[in-house]
Write a structure and sequence with these properties.
- By secondary structure, the chain is α/β, with parallel strands linked by helices.
- The protein is built from 14 helices and 13 strands.
- The strands form four sheets. Strands 1, 6, 7, 8 and 9 form a five-stranded mixed beta sheet that branches. A four-stranded antiparallel beta sheet has the order 10-11-12-13, covered by helices on one side.
Length: about 475
């Protein structure tokens, strides 16, 4: 993909969680501009049209395989469930190397989609791999991926470096390779169908690794994601690395421009993102006008806090710094301990960090992954890529923090972020779309039979922590 296309070195999702991240892709708007859809497991507001719906209304055949926009309730259109990413193609199955990997044959389903459409009809297809979502088969990376623990050149400094964590990372890598395998097959399907040359292929992820302190949080490794774009017939000077900042909100306007569909005639709400075609066409004067920063944010990205509350954050990333404002520092960032830190998927790495703290061995990693945070955080990325040394209270960086906060808030005000006008509480009041998640904390504390299938029973603390 990178060799025959472009590799973007500064691509960010505004929100490092599945549903809100994908909502940004689909609408071209930041999560704080999406009402309920800025949360995880929401109802998708009827007034926000997706690019897939817009393209379908203008002659495109659209569809998806694997995971589309989820989890949440897309609502209805004309009495039928909305298809935010088009009709689903998941019917074809295949044998898998582990029981944890989805049996959906993604590539075969793309082939079925192409056969279903009229020969000359333009198309837009979404491949949402369930890999590398949790859970993984422990040890599969070493056993079936033929990798050794020593193949990992470094373990992020916010996790312990031992065999348990390294196996967890190898298992993750094995599932990433499985995603890549289907991507390769899909490129072959397109080539066989005579469609590869003139199909724009965009490959990225919706959030960082499903490990402690990454997925769902607001740090560099959570939101900074791989992005490669290939268009054999349209990209000028392929093989380039593209360094300007780009955001997931830039995808929707790119697709609309490629389709010759002006945003104003798409039926979509006003788009905040900026098309990537200037970068794909190597137009230096237009590329130079792109922002030298991206905005990040978070509201309610999972369950497990009293009153179904979220953990609101806004942030800004520049070439050297990441600044974040935590608006409710008294809340638990990863969810309350007594309900299992539900904003962090269950994993061997999570279990290990919790066990280390409970045994009194070390609280270092627990503090970084699960402990409460100050109201402001500031990290110098070129010196501290893992965001471990918070400079927000350092007098030498006071001017930098103030400048970044003012720059961030100016843009958030322009984008009508409710949190900038004292209405941030609205995000906590939007209901979960799934009855099983509503009031989870209160029902669990009353002893009702509630279950969170994405964490382990051992994740729940036996006593309430302050």
């Amino acid at each position: 993909m990178a060799r025959e296309g472009l590799l973007f070195t500064n691509a960010y999702t505004p929100n490092a969680k599945c549903a809100p991240s994908r909502a940004c892709i689909l609408t071209g708007r930041n999560p704080w501009q999406l009402e309920e859809a800025g949360n995880h497991v929401p109802f998708f507001p009827a007034r926000f049209t997706t690019y897939a719906e817009a393209l379908a209304r203008h002659g495109y055949r659209v569809g998806y395989t694997g995971k589309g926009w989820a989890p949440g309730n897309p609502g209805q259109l004309d009495g039928r469930p909305r298809q935010l990413t088009g009709p689903v193609y998941n019917q074809l199955k295949t044998a898998t190397p582990t029981k944890a990997i989805s049996p959906t044959d993604y590539a075969a389903n793309l082939e079925a989609f192409l056969k279903d459409k009229p020969k000359d009809q333009p198309f837009c297809f979404w491949y949402g791999g369930n890999e590398p979502h949790r859970a993984y088969e422990y040890g599969s990376g070493a056993e079936k991926g033929k990798k050794k623990l020593s193949d990992i050149d470094r373990v992020p400094a916010y996790w312990p470096d031992n065999d348990t964590v390294r196996h967890d990372m190898l298992d993750y890598a094995f599932e990433v390779e499985y995603f890549d395998h289907h991507l390769g097959r899909m490129l072959d399907v397109l080539e066989k169908a005579g469609q590869l040359e003139n199909t724009v292929v965009v490959v990225t992820s919706d959030n960082g690794m499903p490990f402690p302190r990454v997925k769902g949080h607001v740090y560099a490794f959570d939101n900074h994601l791989p992005l490669a774009v290939m268009w054999q017939k349209g990209i000028r000077n392929p093989g380039r690395k593209v360094d300007p900042f780009v955001s997931f909100i830039d995808f929707a306007p790119t697709f609309l421009e490629l389709a010759g569909l002006p945003a104003g005639k798409s039926g979509m709400q006003p788009i905040t993102g900026k098309s990537l075609l200037d970068l794909m066409r190597a137009t230096p004067d237009k590329a130079a006008s792109r922002p030298d920063y991206v905005l990040l944010g978070r509201e309610r990205t999972d369950v497990g806090r009293p009153g179904d509350a979220g953990y609101p954050v806004r942030g800004i990333v520049t070439e050297k710094f990441i600044y974040t404002r935590n608006y409710e520092p008294d809340r638990w960032p990863a969810g309350n301990p007594e309900t299992g830190y539900l904003d962090t998927d269950g994993s061997p790495t999570k279990t290990l960090i919790l066990q280390q703290k409970r045994r009194g061995e070390t609280t270092k990693y627990w503090d970084l992954a699960f402990g409460k945070k100050p109201a402001e955080e500031l990290y110098q990325l070129d010196q501290d890529p893992y965001c471990l040394d918070n400079l927000a209270a350092n007098p030498a960086f006071a001017a930098t923090g103030r400048r970044l906060r003012e720059q961030m808030e100016k843009q958030l005000i322009n984008q009508q972020d409710p949190r900038m006008s004292g209405k941030g509480h609205l995000f906590d009041q939007y209901p979960y779309s799934e009855a099983a998640t509503r009031g989870f904390y209160e029902r669990y504390m009353r002893g009702e039979p509630v279950k969170a299938g994405w964490v382990n029973e051992s994740d729940f603390e036996k006593r309430k922590m302050e």
